[in-house]
Amino acid sequence: MEFGDILLSVAIMLGQSLLLLVALLIFIAYALYADRKVWAAVQLRRGPNVVGPWGLLQSFADLLKFVLKEPVIPAPAN
What we know:
This protein is mostly helical and about 80 residues long. It contains 2 helices and no strands.
């Protein structure tokens, strides 16, 4: 095998991996969106339609809330 063949194989593998990752992330985003809509209907409340267009930025808002949330540690805890 030549160096060019190896480089092409690596580039193809990286491209396929990136394509798979993007597809999985898009699927997970839609699954989370559907889950939120279903549970909003079950609880008779508004769904995730406030943050961003059609509520698509709700997961990012949840991530930001999780990162900035202060941990609550009781005083007598080790």
